[in-house]
Design goal:
Blueprint: H1 37-46, E1 73-75, E2 96-98, E3 120-122, E4 144-145, E5 147-149, E6 167-173, H2 181-185, E7 194-201, H3 213-226, E8 235-239, E9 260-264, E10 283-287, E11 294-296, E12 301-304, E13 307-311, E14 320-324, E15 331-333, E16 350-354, H4 364-367, E17 373-377, H5 378-383, E18 394-398, E19 407-408, H6 411-414, E20 422-426, E21 432-433, H7 436-439, E22 447-451, E23 471-475, E24 496-500, E25 520-524, E26 544-548, H8 551-556, H9 565-568, E27 573-576
Parallel strand pairs: 1-2, 2-3, 3-4, 5-6, 6-7, 7-8, 8-9, 9-10, 10-14, 11-15, 14-16, 16-17, 17-18, 18-20, 19-21, 20-22, 22-23, 23-24, 24-25, 25-26, 26-27
Antiparallel strand pairs: 12-13
Length: 580
């Protein structure tokens, strides 16, 4: 299952997109010699208006791109390029350069400062990029710079951002290379009113070798204090910060537009700022915070001038709380915090807990009255009173903590899931065992996900007792060689089957065609699966069939010519490989 992160692409001005080239493009003289397939691909790209090579797989951009003097928009996102030709820097009319998802891109042209009309430079997910070209401050019209890498040389420091009126997303990498907090202040983040998402990354911390450990901690704290953003910021992500305490501005009421805070690998952090005072904070993610013990350590208060009136409601808008790999977190609220009748987290809907072995949750039904979705380990789930599970509609259980060879959910627990619509089970060490009588109580369950279970080869037969099951997803099960027979006993409500990353699955049984209620079949990364059984023709309700990354099966399902084409031609919506 995929989880998205932050997108880099903000809104562009109308002049920057679409058919925005005001005069004919000069393609230069065409060479009369015969051209290679690569040359033909480059030629095809250059003749588009505007040129778009996104996701084409090219690994090199011809220096002839410099002939496109009136080019305003160039999209190279998702390509295999490692570098760009210097001739690109002669495109003085270029407004938009999109390099998102160029994962192999290592370097940008040194003279990019000559692209004086550049408005938007997209660099999202360019993880191999080592440094920025110097003097990027001379791109005075730049409005989007989705990534900036602090360099070691003159013209590559944070001061390059000082006068740029940037908006949208900004990721600043290698803050560990900053030598003086005064340099961080020069980034002038507090004046960038159009920034909406800010990612502050300390990198691998190689530079800390030149300082003592304590000096590094103090340096980080002063540095982050100097990077205070504009109050219009909506998302803040901090990774690799080595300080013990976060700056006061993180809980400042002036940052009242913050809706998302993500703190990753802040290993030394002992205390969080008063994040509960942020009125519009909807999502809080904390990962690898090894020394953190509590989320809320002080009661927030309502103030009138210099007077304290009453405790305020902490985290009034928080909807998602995500806690991962922080083994010393003991609780969400410190025991000594007194809030009277005020309840924290009144709007919490999603709680994700993984790798937090010391955490003790408060009663869910009274503390989180709106909680609907819970991700947690089997041991934490066992500690939750069964009455607190009644309102859940979605539950994902990590069985990795279970030391018993057979992994199970107890009858008592299953009886509590009367409103559960989605159940996910993952990281089971052995076979699954589910009590038959308990499954009959899952009267609302519609979706079952089983994934990342290294020893699993079969599903328990008891799933046939789930009365309204519509969707089954089997993913990342390396030993599953045959389709589980228990599927053929599912009720007529069964409409969707997803088979993903089952590397040992080599065939589908003849009874596969007996699942006549199936409407959707999705098969992805099952490379040994070579053909469909003839019985699939009996699946007359099958309307959607997708086959991806299954080379032999894709070949046999080729339209009109494949050996299995006659078996699936009755399916109305087909996606085989990349072809509709």
């Amino acid at each position: 299952m995929a989880h998205g992160y932050m997108s880099s692409r903000g809104a562009l001005e109308a002049e920057d997109v679409g058919n925005d080239i005001s005069r004919p493009i000069n393609h230069g003289e065409q060479n009369s010699r015969s051209t290679s397939p690569k040359d033909e691909r480059q030629k095809c790209i250059s003749q588009q208006n505007p040129p778009d090579a996104s996701w084409t797989g090219i690994n090199e951009l011809s220096s002839a791109v410099g002939n496109l003097k009136h080019l305003r928009h160039l999209n190279l996102s998702g390509t295999e390029i490692r570098s760009l030709p210097d001739s690109l820097c002669s495109l003085w009319n270029l407004h938009v350069l999109n390099l998102d998802d160029c994962e192999k891109l290592e370097v940008l042209p040194k003279k990019m400062r000559y692209l004086i009309n550049l408005r938007h430079l997209f660099l999202e997910n360019c993880d191999a990029l080592r440094e920025m070209p110097s003097k990027i401050r001379e791109l005075t019209r730049l409005q989007t710079l989705s990534a900036f890498i602090v360099g070691r040389d003159r013209g590559q420091g944070l001061e390059e951002l000082q006068w740029l009126k940037l908006g949208g997303n900004l990721k600043i990498h290698h803050l560990d290379r900053v030598k003086d907090p005064i340099d961080a202040k020069k980034a002038n983040l507090g004046k960038k009113e159009n920034l909406r998402r800010l990612f502050l990354d300390w990198g691998s911390n190689a530079e800390y070798l030149v300082r003592s450990w304590e000096e590094g901690i103090e340096m980080d704290e002063k540095l982050l204090e100097a990077l205070e953003p504009h109050p219009n910021l909506e998302t803040l992500l901090i990774r690799g910060f080595k300080g013990r305490c976060f700056p006061v501005w993180m809980s400042n009421s002036t940052l009242d537009k913050l809706v998302e805070i993500i703190l990753l690998r802040c290993h030394n952090c002992l205390h969080l700022p008063q994040l509960g005072e942020l009125p519009h904070l909807k999502k809080l993610i904390l990962t690898h915070m090894e020394n953190l013990e509590y989320i809320l350590e002080e009661a927030a208060v309502v103030r009138s001038g210099n007077s304290l009136l009453s405790p305020s409601q902490p985290f009034p808008s928080l909807e998602t709380l995500d806690l991962r790999y922080s083994p010393n977190i003991r609780g969400l609220i410190k025991e000594q915090v007194t809030m009277g009748s005020v309840k924290a987290f009144p709007n919490l809907e999603v709680l994700y807990v993984e790798g937090c072995s010391s955490l003790i949750l408060p009663p869910l039904s009274t503390s989180f009255k709106k909680l609907k979705i819970l991700y947690c380990g089997i041991l934490l789930l066992a500690s939750v009173p069964k009455a607190d599970l009644l309102n859940l509609t979605k539950l994902f259980v990590n069985l990795e903590e279970n030391t018993v060879g057979t992994c199970t959910l107890t009858l008592e627990t299953l009886q509590s899931f009367t409103n559960l619509k989605s159940l996910g089970i993952y990281n089971a060490a052995g076979e699954l065992s589910l009590p038959e009588q308990g499954l009959q109580h899952l009267t609302a369950l519609e979706e079952l996900y089983v994934f990342e279970c290294p020893q699993l080869v079969e599903l328990p037969e008891e799933i046939k007792h789930i009365p309204r099951l519509k969707t089954v997803t089997l993913q990342n099960l390396p030993k599953m060689a045959c389709l589980p027979e228990s599927l053929k006993h599912l009720s007529s409500s069964f409409h969707c089957l997803e088979l993903v990353n089952l590397h040992q699955l080599s065939s589908l049984p003849d009874w596969f065609g007996d699942m006549t209620s199936l409407e959707e079949l999705y098969i992805d990364e099952c490379p040994k699966l070579a053909s469909f059984p003839t019985s699939i023709r009996r699946m007359t309700n099958l309307r959607y069939l997708t086959v991806k990354k299954c080379p032999e099966l894709e070949r046999r399902c080729e339209r009109a010519n494949g050996e299995d084409w006659h078996k699936i031609q009755h399916v109305r919506h087909l996606l085989i490989g990349e072809q509709l």
